[in-house]
Design a protein that fits this description.
single chain; 9 helices; about 220 residues
Length: about 220
C-alpha cells in the first residue's frame, strides 16, 4: 500500500505541474489538430479511399506531438532539479518509473480522447464507439512506457530534440501499426472480434516493454 501511495503521489505531482504549465497536453492537441486541418485540405474526405488514411494520420500526429511534449516536460524537470531530487529520495527506482509513467499516461490518454471528436468532425468519420476507448487505452500505455524511458535517457543529451524521436518512433512502430489497423476496422463498422488480434498483440507488446523499461530505468538513472 505504501508503494502504491508513493506511485500516486509522484503521478499526482506531475499532473499538478502539467495543469499549471500545460506542456504535454497542449502540445499534443495543438500539433495534432494542426496536422488534421492540413490533411482535411489535402484529402477528399468524402471518398472512402481518403478516409482509409485517417487512422494513420491520427496516430502519427499523436506520436510526433507526444515526443515533442515529453522533451519539453523532462527538460524543465532537469533544469529545476526536481528529477535529481526525486532520485535522491529513499524510493525504489521501480516506483519512480511507474509514477512517471502513470503521469505521462494520463496526459496522453486524455489528449487522445479529446482528439477523437476533433478527428470525427474534421474528417467526417465516426469514431464514437466504446472500442475506440479500448484502442486509445492500450496504445497509450505502450507509448507512455517507451516515451518515459527514452525521454529520461535522452534528456541530458545535447541533441535531445533529435535523439528522442529517433529512438522513440522506431520502437513504437509496431504499436502504431496495431492502432492504425484496429481503428481502420472501426471506420468500416467492424466489431471487436475483427481486430482483437491486433489488440492482443498491442497488450503483449505493452507488457513486454513495460518490464524491459523498468529494468533499463535503473541503469539509465545511474548514468
Amino acid at each position: 500500500m505504501k508503494s502504491l501511495k508513493t506511485i500516486w503521489l509522484i503521478a499526482k505531482n506531475d499532473m499538478a505541474l502539467e495543469l499549471r504549465r500545460r506542456e504535454v497536453v497542449l502540445t499534443i492537441l495543438g500539433f495534432s489538430t494542426l496536422v488534421f486541418i492540413i490533411f482535411t485540405f489535402t484529402l477528399d474526405i468524402k471518398t472512402y479511399e481518403s478516409q482509409k488514411f485517417v487512422p494513420g494520420i491520427f496516430w502519427s500526429a499523436i506520436a510526433f506531438a507526444y515526443a515533442l511534449g515529453l522533451n519539453k516536460r523532462f527538460a524543465s524537470e532537469i533544469e529545476n532539479g526536481t528529477f535529481e531530487g526525486l532520485l535522491l529520495a529513499p524510493i525504489s527506482r521501480d516506483i519512480i518509473f511507474i509514477g512517471k509513467f502513470l503521469g505521462n499516461f494520463c496526459f496522453l490518454f486524455i489528449s487522445t480522447l479529446i482528439s477523437l471528436p476533433i478527428t470525427t468532425i474534421l474528417f467526417n468519420i465516426s469514431l464514437f464507439r466504446i472500442e475506440s476507448l479500448l484502442i486509445c487505452l492500450v496504445i497509450s500505455v505502450g507509448l507512455s512506457t517507451l516515451g518515459t524511458l527514452f525521454a529520461i535517457m535522452t534528456v541530458r543529451v545535447r541533441a535531445k530534440e533529435i535523439m528522442l524521436p529517433l529512438l522513440f518512433l522506431p520502437a513504437i512502430s509496431p504499436l502504431l501499426l496495431a492502432g492504425v489497423e484496429s481503428m481502420s476496422e472501426l471506420t468500416i463498422g467492424s466489431n471487436y472480434s475483427e481486430f482483437k488480434t491486433w489488440i492482443s498483440f498491442a497488450v503483449a507488446y505493452d507488457l513486454l516493454f513495460f518490464v524491459i523499461s523498468v529494468f533499463l530505468f535503473h541503469y539509465t538513472v545511474q548514468e
